[in-house]
Each structure stands twice: as C-alpha cells, then as structure tokens.
Description:
The protein is of the alpha/beta class. It has helices spanning 3-14, 61-73, 116-126, 176-194, 196-199, 220-237, 253-265, 300-315, 349-369, 403-413, 429-435, 500-506, 515-525, and strands at 28-42, 49-52, 78-82, 103-105, 111-113, 130-136, 203-206, 242-248, 280-286, 290-292, 295-297, 325-331, 373-378, 396-397, 400-401, 417-423, 442-449, 455-462, 472-479, 487-493, 530-531, 535-536, 542-548, 553-559. It has a domain at 1-43 and 279-561: Immunoglobulin-like (Sandwich), CATH 2.60.40.1500. Strand 14 and strand 15 form a beta hairpin. The two termini are 32 Å apart. Mean pLDDT is 94; it is low at 1-24.
Amino acid sequence: MTIWKTIATTLALAGVSFPALAQDGTSRQVSVTIDASRSIGALPPTWRFFGADEPNYATMKDGRKLLVELGALKSGDVYFRAHNLLTSGDGTPSFKWGSTNVYTDDKAGKPVYDWTIVDGIIDSYRAQGIHPYLQIGFMPEALSSAPAGVPYRHAWKPGVDYGKIATGWSYPPKDYAKWGELAYQWTRHNVERYGRAEVERWFFEVWNEPNLDFYWRGTPEDFYKMHDYAIAGVRRALPTARVGGPDVAGAGGTFMDGFLKHVTTGKNYATGQIGTPTDFLSFHAKGKPSIVDGHVRMGIATHLMAADGGFTKVLSIPALAAKPVVIGESDPEGCAACPGPENAYRNGTMYSSYTAASFARIWELAAKRKVNLAGIVSWSFEFEGQPWFAGYRQLATNGVDLPVLNVFRLFAKLGETRLASTSSAQIPLESVMEDGVRGTPDVGTLATRTADGRLAVLVWHYHDDDLAGPDAQIHIALNGLRSAPVKATVWRVDPTHANAFAAWRAMGSPQSPDTGQYAALEAASRMHPETVSIARGKAGTATLDMRLARQGVALVLLDGA
C-alpha cells in the first residue's frame, strides 16, 4: 500500500472531509483539447517571485530550508522581495517587523553604515541562486522625521488594529541628501560584494504601498522626492541598475497618477532634470475572502479587477506603456500575518487551487491587455517558530511544505511557449472578473511546449466556495502532435496528494510532532509522479483520461509528442 493510500484511509477513519463524488456516484465530464501544433504566444515565468514583511526569517533554520526549495524552482532565476531591509534594530524578527541597523549617526551627526545583518539576508538568497527584488526601506531611526513622542518600532501582533503599525519607521527622511547617500553607499557596497553583473539583475524599488497611511506618513510629493533621491543614489553607484516602482496598494488611485506624471514630466528633486529613470512599474493586487453560510468564500474577482486596474494605470501613459510590469504583491487577501476564519483556506487545497486559477487568469489578462508582465510576487514565505498550521499565509510550516508550494513546482514544469488549448468547463475570463466562480466550478487548462520539446498541460478544478463537490472526469484530446507520445506522467496536488495538512489532521493535529511524525509529514507534502495510459489515434492525435478532485491541480507531461 502506498503512503497516500495509507493516508487516505487514515483520513477517512479520522472523519476528515474532502471533495467527494456527487450523490449518484458520478463525476462531472470535462473535455480538454490541445493543439500542439499551434503556438499562441509566450508564457513568461512570472510566478518565480516571492516576498515577506520579515526579512530576518531568511537567515533562520526554517527560512533557510525554504529558500533551498524556492531557489530550486527555476535555478538562477528566482527573486525575493522583503520589507524592513533598512529598518533600525538588532535583527530580531516579529510579526510584520524586521531590522538590519544599516544606518546610524555618530556623535557629530555623520553617517555610520553597518552592512552585517543585511549582507547576511542577501547572502541567504544568493546561496540558493535567488536574486533580490530590492526594496529601499524603511526609514532608519536616525533619519526619521517622526515627531517627538512617536515610537520608532511598532508592537503589532495578530488581532491588533492594523493601522497601529505606522510608527517612526514610516516617516520621510529629515535629510534627503543623507537618504540618497545611503542608497548610493548600499548599492556601491552590493556591487563590491556581489559583482556588477549580479546586481544589474536586481530590481530596485523604494518603499511599500506609499498610497496607504499606515505605510507612509508623508505626502505624495514627499514620496516622489524620497523616491528621486534614492533612485539617483542607486544610479550614481550603478548607472545600469534596473530601477522602478512604486509598489502601490491596488492600482494606486490619484497617488499613482501623480507618480506616473512626476517620473515622466516632473522635475526631479535630486537631479533637477525632467523625469526619473523608470525601468519597470509595480503595483499590488489582492483578493478578498469572506465567510458565507459558515464557510470561506474566496474573492478571485476582486483580485483580478485589481490587477486590471493596475494594468490600466500603466497603459494610460504612452511613454511607460511598454515598460515591464511587476505585480509586487499578488495574493488572495492582504495580510499574511493575520489568521482568522476568513483566512482558514491557507493550509490546504483551497489556497493551492486558487493559486493555479488566479495565475492562469492574470497571464490571460496581461496577454489580452498587451501588458509586458515580468513578475507576479506571491507575498508568502514562512513564519519562524509559530504553531503548526497556524493559519498564516505561508508556503511552509515548521519546515514542512504546504500544498500551495507544490503548485509553484508545477508552474516550474511548464514551458514558455503557450499552445492553443480549451476546456469545456473553463469559465471565461470576463465572467470570472465580474462574478468570480460562484456557480459551476472552473475546470481550466493551459498547455505549453517545454524547452526540451515535451508537452506540459496544467489543469485545475477551482470554486470560490470552500465546499465539497464532485470530481471532474477529464478527457484530454491531443492534436497536432509531432509524433506519437511515448509516455504521460501526471503530478497532482489535491486533498489526497501532496497535502501535509490533511496528513497532519489525520495524525490528530499534533503541535509537537515526534521524529517519525515529522518525517511522515515531509513525505506527505511531496508530489509523486503517476503514469497515465495514452490512447493513440490517427497520425498526430492521442487521448488520455484522468480524474481531478475539486480543489485539485495537476500537470501532465508528455514525452515524445
């Protein structure tokens, strides 16, 4: 008996529910058609970006372990964005907090730079081949213009008013020249430490969500000025640095309008020239889950509408319309460190199936709008030393991967040439953006040709409501094949495959797993390939059949096709 048959039996005995067949024992019939001879454009690997509020976790035990997994997704081409890389403190992390203490003043008011902690963070990325999507922020205590009496560090924790995080770190610099010099010195140091060619690959941006008053306590003009000085400092140290921003929340409203006008036609505060160098543009897009009739209902429509709003802003300025775009945070909701009933989807297959369905739609939306989409940052890492499966938005818990991380492993198996594909049960993009997935489930697909010539077919079975439902019985028709496929391999993430959360619940939800239990959880988190039978048809055609549970995601790899 395989480990997953054992786990499935244990789950049933433990009373753990997961999507089931319809009452009459049947499943939903779905037809998928792939034309392997017809390319419909590129599928850029935009999924390879991750991030977190707490930068110091990257140097800790479970953080280092997770970085190994992220770096392996696409060797040498993964990026990580983190807040608090310039925040003052001793490097001890907590919720929505981290620090590096890179900048202090001596008694004469002269800058003192200490790169020790921040180097350790970036070294942790680079050890796994990961590149920084480098956020220049937040404000060092010695440079903060916060009024007297405002504490520098916040004491936020889950359950506390989110607005209370806006303490002294969130204020403009009291000396813009020193702020610009800090950006210069940091960039120069990075070039010396990591090499010019490496640092040229990084993304440099200033701050986070400056259109929200709990991240930015200055005016929009204060931000444009701070941005100008930082970018000027970076470019003075490395004229070829890739710079951009402003990583606003949502589409950014009038704040984004002002920023785009400033960087194209405004007078640069630091240089006196017209405009500010801008190599890429960035904004954030989030969904909005809720509780409906006692269960979680996801908000994929809100997420996609936010992405489209950001694309619209970028496209509104002809001089910027062709620039690369990064969705600097793209998630089902807005606070990774906030557990709660509406966020109960995070541990299991609701999160993994949402990720597949939402990324597929963002890819489709970007292609439709002709946006040069370079990256989609999943603001999901790990929370060191927290209870098992505590309900934070993360990729792993106590060093054990969650199902959602396996979806990124499936993405990594996709090629970058997209092929024509249809599914009889895939809900049109416009309908998902308007209404979400509230009626029949979305059983969708996308197909690619990999660099080594294989076909990779991704399928997902998604619904906004976190409820059980019938499986999908999927018939895949392959046309336009170069030759008869010799092998079909399926990788699955669903309630009974690559799902450590289900295995943990079947164990009785231990908060102190012993060595054997830990090993079993690690084993349960892993995907295992299955071979699927292929029915060869007339020349250039073949078919195969597979079953996909609700909240399931699968990838079919076909060799010799």
